[in-house]
Amino acid sequence: MNPNDLTLRPLTGDQEVDLFNQLPYVLNEEIADDLAQGRRRPARMWVALRGNRLLGRAAWWGRAGADAPLLLDVLDVDDALTAPDRVDVGVRLLRTAMATALPEGGEPPRYSRFVPDDWRDGPATRQAVEDRMRIVERTGARPFVERLRLEWRPGATAARPAGRLAFRPVDDDAELLDLMTAALDGTLDAHSRDDLTRMSDRAAAVAHYEKELARYASPREWWRVATRPDGTPVGFVIPARNDYNAIIAYLGVLPAHRGNGYADDLLAEGTRILAGQGVPRIRASTDLGNAPMANAFARAGYVTFQREIVMRWHRRGAEG
């Protein structure tokens, strides 16, 4: 492919959404609303064109009003291109877009890709996923974690709380931060483990709370602490709503009380609260390697409907 045939540029405005969505992906139906709500910006949505043909695209997602994006969550190439051209177009596009769309210095936002649960089983699907991973790798990123995306729908068969725990609202932020800090001891979550390589347990809990939990507009009255009959806390669950769905945002069992199946009770309580709001579905996620939590979700009636591939850069740069 002649590189001079390519035009690499950001979108000129919301009117180019149809152009951007010419390549298929599960997030296409959210793109227009994300733009309208400020979660995406045309300057952070790039395309690779040959004439009027869309050969590649890349886009970052962030919170409305935030200065910097949080995720590179759209990266696609035309799968009809030859194998070398697919990757080369994607690399040229991503390198060019990163140099312009992202703030100077620091670690670029992580790459996130939603894929079918069985993505490794079909040759075409596997090739498409691995092409995109290869593009990201050639700009300096490396695989970080694979996660299960889970969903509960009304009518699903679910375990009920066993009645051995009592549930009450979280007293205040200080109590929740204490519980979050304690639950980080021995965590199997890759993001939390990564945080703990760079900061203390308390700092990691505060960062998670401020970046995620504190931003949910849903009622904090939904948040629950589970206690034994004597009032001793054993864990907590954070049911919430994000910009798209009702979610189980966080669930933690304190180290001294693990191995008793309390995650089942906590998950059942969180699901009960959200189901009581009449929601059409509840979403959740957990690392592929976190088998205890994945099994708890399965017992609670959640099914895996997708996976998420996450890759990260340790520095700005390019390789290969």
UniProtKB/TrEMBL annotation:
One of its GO terms (molecular function) is acyltransferase activity, transferring groups other than amino-acyl groups. Keywords: Transferase. The keyword Transferase applies. This is N-acetyltransferase. The lineage of its organism: Bacteria, Bacillati, Actinomycetota, Actinomycetes, Kitasatosporales.
